[in-house]
């Protein structure tokens, strides 16, 4: 198996992949981060031969670099992806693929022109429960899937300074600028992967419940805890998904309802599944209700078990490297990636308008590209920028005092 010469850009998330790359016969030859302490840590892990850069262009020019993993800020992947694709360097991009509609158009055009592979690094579809649901759905015993739900619910203890410091080291970090619908791939990705259905129309509602002011981040965040998003799909099925939600208890969950039965994972458990059929319609030899644990049935099982995100991170690298080696489109190609982003972006607009529906474009079609090629609206720019769109369902911009207070609270040693 040919070794892939790989570079990693952004070394918080990116630094968790060194072992995974090696397990899939890749070699990290270069890393890039503007934070030099992270470069030093990388050298400690990877040895002195790895080249360390603070500047992306210099990193991209590293001799022999074949492929890059973009693990920089959530909303800033597209310009870096395009630069790499223009040099025919393969791109694995962390989520989200594009943060504006215009970026989605530009990304598709760049990927089509390039000889390189583009893949979005969506890892949740590869978690064991989602793979098992794909196996059952494709087995056909549930009949046509008419409805599916996906939930990515990741609340943080709002009084835990260490946790906030780790994930949100300053108040204007992307995690606090990110509207609820934008972090959508962990809930929508598995549903698109399992069913093959593609959203064509979207609508969303905010779940508004501000955190109390005495919590660590209460005074710097808008009040939306989640967004409840519905998608009408190209096969007449309907999805209900959340973006990044923070309510109830932590879980990643999917549920698929077909003509004859349904399958879901038990919320809070990655590996307990509940498969049910109606009494009058159950396939021969099946129980009405079965609760069971899925199995990997994969030759790389031992390696998968060592990887992050319940094994999902292993599959992401394996699929990307195999697509490069076999010179083929990966499962999560640029159309899959930009469709998820369009749902995220247009769901947010729907939410701001209290549920007005939006058609989801198909960027394979030139007429859809032309419609959005100059649409630069973004919730991530400063509120006085001409292309700013509100971040929250009720307008909110934290004061300078609140920002200073946040940074004081997370700096305090616990
Ligand atoms: N798929 C998953 O399960 C998963 C999990 C965590 C994070 N992520 C994704 O990974 C990405 C990174 O997340 P994170 O939590 O590591 O974010 P982070 O903000 O903690 O880290 C980003 C890193 O990129 C560096 N960086 C940003 N812009 C740079 C630039 N122009 N030049 C040099 N260095 C730059 C920063 O210094 C920082 O070290 C995000 O897109 C996030 O959505 C995905």
| Distinct ligand kinds | nicotinamide-adenine-dinucleotide
Average of pLDDT: 96
For the record, the count of structural domains works out to 2
- CATH class of the largest domain equals Alpha Beta
**E-strand count:** 15
Measured distance between first and last alpha carbons: 48 Å
**Based on helices, strands and strand pairing, what is the structural class?**
alpha/beta
Helix content: 25-40%
**What is the fold named in CATH at topology level of the largest domain?**
Dihydrodipicolinate Reductase, domain 2
Rounded to an integer in angstroms, the radius of gyration calculated over CA atoms is: 21 Å
- CATH superfamily grouping of the largest domain: Dihydrodipicolinate Reductase, domain 2
Rough outline? globular
Task: Provide the low-confidence segments as ranges.
Answer: none
**What is the helix tally?**
14
- Main sheet strand line-up: 14-13-12-11-7-10-9-8-15
SSE order in H/E notation? EHEHEHEHEHEHEHHHEEEEEEEHHHEHH
Largest sheet: 9 strands, mixed
The CATH architecture of the largest domain? 2-Layer Sandwich
Give the strand content. 15-25%
């Amino acid at each position: 198996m040919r070794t892939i010469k790989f570079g990693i850009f952004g070394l918080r998330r990116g630094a968790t992949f060194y072992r995974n790359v090696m397990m899939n016969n890749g070699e990290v030859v270069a890393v890039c981060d503007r934070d030099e302490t992270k470069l030093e840590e990388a050298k400690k892990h990877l040895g002195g031969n790895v080249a360390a850069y603070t500047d992306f262009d210099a990193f991209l020019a590293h001799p022999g670099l074949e492929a890059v993993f973009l693990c920089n800020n959530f909303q800033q992947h597209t310009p870096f992806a395009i630069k790499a694709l223009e040099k025919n360097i393969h791109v694995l991009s962390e989520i989200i693929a594009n943060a504006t509609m215009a970026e989605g158009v530009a990304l598709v055009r760049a990927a089509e022109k390039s000889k390189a592979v583009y893949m979005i690094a969506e890892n949740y579809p590869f978690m064991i429960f989602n793979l098992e649901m794909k196996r059952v759905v494709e087995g056909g015993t549930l009949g046509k899937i008419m409805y599916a739900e996906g939930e990515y619910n990741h609340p943080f203890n709002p009084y835990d300074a260490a946790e906030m410091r780790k994930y949100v080291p300053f108040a204007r970090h992307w995690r606090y600028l990110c509207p609820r619908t934008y972090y959508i791939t962990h809930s929508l990705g598995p549903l698109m992967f399992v069913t093959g259905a593609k959203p064509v129309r979207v609508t969303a509602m905010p779940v508004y419940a501000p955190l109390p002011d005495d919590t660590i981040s209460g005074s710097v965040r808008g009040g939306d805890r989640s967004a409840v998003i519905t998608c009408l799909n190209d096969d007449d099925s309907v999805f209900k998904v959340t973006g990044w939600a923070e309510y109830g208890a932590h879980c990643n969950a999917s549920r698929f309802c077909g003509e004859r039965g349904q399958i879901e994972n038990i919320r809070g458990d990655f590996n307990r599944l509940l498969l049910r059929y109606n009494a009058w319609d159950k396939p021969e030899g099946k129980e009405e209700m079965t609760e069971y644990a899925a199995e990997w049935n994969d030759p790389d099982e031992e390696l998968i078990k060592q990887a992050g995100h319940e094994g999902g991170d292993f599959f992401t690298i394996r699929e990307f490297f195999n697509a490069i080696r076999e010179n083929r489109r990966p499962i999560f190609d640029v159309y899959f990636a930009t469709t998820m982003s369009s749902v995220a972006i247009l769901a947010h607009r729907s939410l701001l308008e209290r549920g007005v529906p939006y058609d989801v474009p198909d960027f394979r079609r030139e007429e859809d590209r032309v419609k959005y090629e100059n649409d630069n609206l973004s919730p991530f720019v400063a509120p006085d920028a001409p292309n700013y769109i509100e971040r929250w369902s009720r307008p909110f911009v934290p004061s300078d005092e609140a920002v200073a207070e946040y940074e004081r609270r997370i700096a305090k040693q616990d």
